Each structure stands twice: as C-alpha cells, then as structure tokens.
Amino acid sequence: MRNSAIWDFVKAHENFKDPEWVGEPIDPVPPKPSPDGPDAPLPNPVDPPEIPPNDIEPPVKLEVKLADGKVRHIRFISTTSYWSADGKPISAREFMDRLFGDLSGMIADEDALRKIWSDPDTRHHFLTQLADRGYDRDLPDETRSLVDAPDSDLFDVLSYVLFTTSPKTRQARVLSVKEEDLSATGDEMKQLLFAILRAYEVGGESELELRKLTQTLSSRYGGVGEGKAVLGALPAIKNAFRRMLAGLNRR
Length: 251
Known about the structure:
Layout: H1 19-22, E1 60-65, E2 71-76, E3 82-83, E4 89-90, H2 92-104, H3 110-117, H4 120-132, H5 139-146, H6 154-163, H7 170-180, H8 187-203, H9 210-221, H10 224-231, H11 234-248
Antiparallel strand pairs: 1-2, 3-4
C-alpha cells in the first residue's frame, strides 16, 4: 500500500505563529455538571411497594355452651378437622360436646384430675383410656389449639374444658414450682429437676414421664447407677420427681 502525505506548498502553517492571525486565546468553557454527579439534586424518594393484605383469615372465636350450661370459648380454624369415635368428620362444637361428655364420665372434679395428672403412672393410664375412646395422640395439640392455649399443659386444657378454669402457661407453672417447691432442694437434685422442667417448657407433658427421668439421669451422669451414686437411692429420686409434679399442677 502506498503511503500518502499532505504538502503545505504555501506554508500556511506558519500563520499559527502570528498572534494577529490567530487572535486572543479563548477561555475554555467549563463542562456542565453531570446529572449523576455529586452536585446533582437527589431524586424524589420512591414509596415502597404496598404489601398485599394477608389472604389468611384470622381464627374466629366461638362461644360453646356445653351440657353443664357454662360457656367455653373456642377458635374455629378451617384447616383443622375433628372426627367422631367412628371416624366421621364432626364440627368443633360437636368435638367439644363429645370431649366434655367423655371426660365428665371419667373425672369427678378438678382435684381428681389434678391427682391423676400429678402421678406419671395414673396419667399414662388416663391417656390410655382416652385413646381407647378414640382420642389419638394428636388430642393434646388439637385441644390446645381449639381453646387457644398453645403454651399450656394438657392438664390446664382439660381443666378448662371440664371446669372452665383459666389455663396457665407451662412457663408460669415452672416458675411457680421453682420458687415454692424446689428452693430447699439440694443442688444436685435441683439441677436434675431443672433440666426436666426446661424440657417440659418446650415439649409439654410428655417430658414428665418416668422414662424421661431415667433418660435425664443417664444423660447427665452417664447412667442410672452413676446418678444414684450422686443423688442417692432411686426411690428418693423418684419421690423428689413426684413432689415436683404435685407442685407443678397446683391450682
């Protein structure tokens, strides 16, 4: 490829050296600030998008008058199903009627329920009787939800169904038994019972079975025998456990 060049035959480039021909220099024009620069005005704030309302309807409170003529308040939740003893779907009202009738035939008064509930053996037998009447293992959670007492012991829930006694939370019962029943207990025994109570606050009455006592002994001390060496004979440990349960279910 041939190279090309521009030849200045008249020497016009020399005119750039002549001030009269070139003229006075012109000051440069400052550039306009960019709209995105530091001096740019802040844009108008944009409102956050509206959050659509929750489509889930809140539970509806219903009043149910049972056979004793007293009113109970229950929560109607459309996603919860209740069943009769023969496996047919029933309403929440019908479930409460059925539960009240069955419990009334098994428990004379609140003290009788408290006595049953304070002993792991009689509590287990009572729950077995309920299972024989068609109440499965979901009964505690279903009934807690029905009477709007999710953090209460099943004892409190059944007391409300039978006797309209206002439910206490498990946390309130634990605090009470710690202050009133375990303050004079020896440190090692107290720590064992405190561990059981912590599990009870989270997991409910199933954590108060005798087998849980054995499991807690094994987990804390490496075995039941090792626990006995620290705490004393097994009957003494069980008696302390039962005394705690009696205080836990105090009115």
